């Protein structure tokens, strides 16, 4: 049984962090999908950035990471994903995950979160002198997610160690929530997770056969 998790973030700027998250997942028997990995599935009839959304749709859990860089904006997402015209790949992936009510763990770098708080109170603050490497579009994307009802799960992070610590606490819980209304899948996923992940500070004690 393969358990798939989609990792969404800017690629080049967060290359090392993405590799660390991939390693964390792989060591626990999970198959991560990262768009910059060799062999990532693409659909010939779609731009590569749009076909990522097809892969995301097959994953019960999405791990998103937001830092300063927003990424390139694309106008052509095809008829199926026309709503994402003008979005960067990360923005479209996260918006799509929320739209499909996926379980999403969204990590936002401390600096970006702090910049957002300044921008939220004074949106002209960064028009003439934005912090180095910060895209205002990133703050606008974060604002979109912050306004959602119900509010999505979000957490600040300083470095990859913060993300590892959080994943140890949240990973199994989020997958359990996804499958809890499906009796057979609960049993299958519970057995899989207990075998592959084991006790790593997660709420495994709450798992029980039906």
Summarize the SSE layout with pairings:
Blueprint: E1 4-8, H1 15-27, E2 31-33, H2 48-57, E3 61-66, H3 89-99, E4 103-109, H4 110-121, H5 136-146, E5 154-157, H6 160-179, H7 183-196
Parallel strand pairs: 1-2, 1-3, 3-4, 4-5
Helix pairs in contact: 2-3, 4-5, 6-7
Description of the molecule:
- This protein is of the alpha/beta class and 210 residues long.
- It has a single domain, classed as Rossmann fold, CATH 3.40.50.
- It has 7 helices and 5 strands.
- A 5-stranded parallel β-sheet has the order 2-1-3-4-5, sandwiched between helices.
- Helix 3 links the parallel strand 3 (61-66) and strand 4.
- Helix 2 runs parallel beside helix 3 (89-99) and helix 4 packs across helix 5 (136-146).
- The longest helix has 20 residues, at 160-179.
- Mean pLDDT is 86; it is low at 201-210.
Summarize the structure.
With 210 residues, this protein is of the alpha/beta class. It has one domain: Rossmann fold (3-Layer(aba) Sandwich), CATH 3.40.50.
């Amino acid at each position: 049984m393969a358990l798939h998790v989609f990792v969404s973030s800017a690629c080049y700027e967060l290359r090392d962090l993405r590799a660390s998250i991939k390693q964390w997942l792989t060591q626990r028997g999970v198959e991560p999908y990262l768009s910059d990995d060799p062999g990532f599935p693409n659909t010939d009839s779609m731009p590569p950035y749009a076909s990522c959304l097809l892969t995301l749709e097959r994953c019960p859990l999405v791990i998103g990471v937001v830092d300063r860089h927003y990424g390139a904006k694309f106008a052509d997402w095809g008829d199926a994903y026309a709503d994402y015209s003008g979005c960067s790949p990360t923005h479209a992936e996260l918006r799509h995950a929320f739209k499909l009510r996926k379980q999403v763990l969204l990590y936002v770098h401390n600096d970006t979160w702090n910049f957002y708080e300044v921008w939220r109170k004074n949106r002209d603050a960064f028009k003439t002198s934005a912090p180095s490497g910060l895209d205002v579009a990133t703050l606008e994307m974060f604002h979109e997610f912050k306004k959602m009802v119900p509010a999505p799960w979000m957490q600040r992070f300083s470095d990859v160690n913060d993300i590892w610590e959080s994943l140890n606490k949240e990973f199994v819980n989020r997958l359990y929530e996804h499958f809890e209304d499906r009796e057979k899948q609960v049993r299958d996923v519970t057995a899989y997770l207990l075998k592959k992940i084991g006790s790593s500070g997660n709420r495994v004690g709450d798992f029980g056969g039906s």
